[in-house]
Amino acid sequence: MMSSNTALVLFSGGQDSATCLAWALKRYGAVETVGFTYGQRHRVELEQRLTVRERMAEAFPDWGAKLGDDHLIDLGFLSSIGETAMTADVEITMQENGLPNTFVPGRNLAFLVAAGALAYRRGAGVLIGGMCETDYSGYPDCRSNTIAAQEKALSLGMEMPLRVETPLMHLSKAESWKLAERIGGETLTTLIEEHSHTCYKGERGTRHPWGYGCGACPACELRAEGHAAWKAGKA
């Protein structure tokens, strides 16, 4: 039986998914997390995601009591069917179709299918993802109409109501930082700065005001600009 009070968070360990995890723990009675390995070059995120979970449970004991199991699903076929700058050590560039070569075709769709199947087994009636169509790299599988279509397909295909929540969908990166602040104050924003990982290159050697990263890839640039705007009171 699917419970509308049990949520499964698609959790990469990045800024957005960390904010979504806090958002879910604030609202639902039971929360589990799921991550995916698909040959990503920034595999350090797979390590950081566990650290973020642990630190969040320690900093917010009420949330820790609601935080259940973590799951890791292998979706290696995403890299085996074609290289991208997300899965191979190549320069990040724009393609002729207007999308950066960090775009992994079908990635979010595959994430939602796998998470939906897991939610079915775990009795979770809600999937929560950090997809956003405001401050993002233009990926078509981050758009609200794509997520709505996938939600309908999952519910029909499983013959069970399955809701997909995307709390960051229409927020800028600055507004995402502001949302984290509203949810958990400075404790949460500091935790996200220090322990989450967003950099596409997997760089954790340099600590910036907004966290660790190379500072030059699209993910770092978006995170840095959003953090600066939030700190300047522009969120």
UniProtKB/TrEMBL annotation:
Q: Which cofactor does it need?
A: Zn(2+)
Q: Which UniProt keywords apply?
A: ATP-binding, Ligase, Metal-binding, Nucleotide-binding, Queuosine biosynthesis, Zinc
Q: Which reaction does it catalyse?
A: 7-carboxy-7-carbaguanine + NH4(+) + 2 ATP = 7-cyano-7-carbaguanine + 2 AMP + 2 diphosphate + 2 H(+)
Q: In which pathway does it act?
A: Purine metabolism; 7-cyano-7-deazaguanine biosynthesis
Coiled-coil blocks: none
Gene Ontology terms for molecular function: ligase activity
Name the positions where Zn(2+) binds: 199, 214, 217, 220
Q: Where does ATP bind?
A: 11-21
Instruction: Please name the CDD domains in this protein's record.
Output: QueC-like
Enzyme Commission number(s) of this protein: 6.3.4.20
The cofactor remark states: Binds 1 zinc ion per subunit.
Per the entry, what this protein does is: Catalyzes the ATP-dependent conversion of 7-carboxy-7-deazaguanine (CDG) to 7-cyano-7-deazaguanine (preQ(0)).
Q: Which NCBIfam families match?
A: 7-cyano-7-deazaguanine synthase QueC
Query: Which family is it part of?
Result: Belongs to the QueC family.
Q: What is this protein called?
A: 7-cyano-7-deazaguanine synthase
Q: Please tell me the species this chain comes from.
A: Parvularcula lutaonensis
Q: What is the lineage of its organism?
A: Bacteria, Pseudomonadati, Pseudomonadota, Alphaproteobacteria, Parvularculales
